[in-house]
Amino acid sequence: MTTFADLGIDQDIVDALASKGIVDAFPIQEQTIPLGLPGQDIIGQAKTGTGKTFGFGIPVVQRLGLNPEHGVKALIVVPTRELAVQVYEDIDLLTSNRSTSVVAIYGGKAYEGQIDQLKAGAQIVVGTPGRLIDLAGQRLLDLSNATEVVLDEADKMLDLGFLADIEKIFQKVPAVRHTQLFSATMPGPIVALARRFMSNPIHIRASDPDEGLTQANIKHLVYRAHSLDKDEIIARILQAEGRGKTVIFTRTKRAAQRLVDELGDRGFNVGGVHGDMGQDQRERSMAAFKAGKRDVLVATDVAARGIDVDDVTHVINHTIPDEDKTYLHRAGRTGRAGKTGIAVTFVDWEDLHKWALINRALEFGQPEPVETYSSSPHLFEDLDIPAGTKGRLVSAPKTQSVKTERAPRPERAADAAAEGTDEGGTRRRRRRRGGSNPVGSTFAEGATDSASGDSQSAPSGDRSAEGAGTHDGAGKEHHDGKPAPARRRRRRRGGSGGAGAAPVVGA
DNA sequence: AAAAAAG
């Protein structure tokens, strides 16, 4: 396997990566880095969780040189604030052995710190469009020397919601520059549009086009569900054997908050991320999830793209997304860096056409979602939900049993104490009954850590551990603090049942 | 139509 050292990368960067155990290069990195280093414009496309960030980040850092002059030389634009934080951390790692400094510029935060870092001469800016334009308009951010430009999640950045901002930003950077666009999804029309901002770009696809876009190591399970049942079913899934971290996606901010409260009431170690939360809360919640202090994250599509968390074993689509691209990005929060994952999707009756669309676009070839549990014990087989509770609509797991199973209690108690709030269910319960949801105030995250603490989970890391395509399935311990399941039953029984009953697609 | 992104 190709290592980073083989790719013409400066030794200090190779060392920085090695310090996190990152040695082997993924295919997208192998293909784009040698082109990016000499300044070739690139449209880089590779599946979720296969290392795109370093694919563009390493050339950016290296091309600035060991001791770049003060002032912004590189701009990386991303669609969400949390992704800005994450990419900032990745780039910061790459620069750890050189004088280059990086700053994250995004909304919801005080201006002061960001402006200070710009004034101190930061050379690489990672940011979201709104705040970037804001600061540029105030002459606090000078992009006129930013000869390195990257759009991460490029198809999203060129979407209608962002395109006007992106055009503004491109007007502020030099006409002669090195431009890189990366995403797992790059529809033809977007590629055509993208060329307007690039010169003679080469389109790199890191995988066989015939292979489709979905990750082979993600198993897709699709069920028709009645909305009233979903809380129960999700509660059951959260008790599946071998479950590590789990991300649950909802369609709306309100639905996300409701589910955070509901699952919290049921005793799960859950946090949320959505746009109605305060930015500090969002970041604490993400950090707690990344660090393993929480093992369930309920999110809107703000977390659908790019977010890289180790050991996410399950993604649950509480509501099926409208677009195939969104489905693919959501599911891609699991099965990263060669690991396996499960994506469970609930399809409401009126949303069956959406599943048909996604099914077709992603070439799943799945006939029809199976009805959940009234008729389908398959749900429980496929998800390894412990025997004895199978097929029965059980009430919520009691707080006690879940707590002993999951995160060590002392830690939680300590967190709550440190925060000086009553983290317990009382506030949530009251609020839920009351119907109104003053969101943002319901979480009590670990008080100690901030977003950029040591919660950094070796971005795209782990790759050294396993060869491409190997499945770590039953052999691996996914949990922090959770006792290894004594009984590990067959993962998969007799394939997938009978005609049409198989909710399985993919690997 | 929702979510995201400036405040």
From TrEMBL:
Q: Which Pfam families does the UniProt entry name for this protein?
A: DEAD (PF00270), Helicase_C (PF00271)
Q: Where are the transmembrane segments?
A: none
Sequence ranges of Polar residues compositional bias? 449-459
- Please state the Enzyme Commission number of this protein: 3.6.4.13
Signal sequence interval, chain numbering:
none
Q: List each copy of the Helicase C-terminal domain by range.
A: 232-384
Extent of Basic residues compositional bias: 485-494
Q: Name one GO molecular function term.
A: helicase activity
Q: Keywords in alphabetical order, please.
A: ATP-binding, Helicase, Hydrolase, Nucleotide-binding
Chain ranges for the short sequence motif Q motif as given in the UniProt record: 2-30
Q: Which family does it belong to?
A: Belongs to the DEAD box helicase family.
Chain ranges of the DEAD-box RNA helicase Q domain: 2-30
Question: What is this organism's lineage?
Answer: Bacteria, Bacillati, Actinomycetota, Actinomycetes, Micrococcales
- Enumerate the residue ranges of region (Disordered): 389-507
This chain belongs to which protein, by name?
RNA helicase
| Compositional bias segments (type: Basic and acidic residues) | 403-414, 473-482
Whether Hydrolase counts among this entry's keywords is yes
Q: Domain Helicase ATP-binding spans what residues?
A: 33-204
Question: What is the uppermost EC class here?
Answer: hydrolase
The keyword Mitochondrion is assigned to this record: no
Under InterPro entries, the record lists: DEAD/DEAH_box_helicase_dom, DEAD/DEAH_RhlB, DEAD_box_RNA_helicases, Helicase_ATP-bd, Helicase_C-like, P-loop_NTPase, RNA-helicase_DEAD-box_CS, RNA_helicase_DEAD_Q_motif
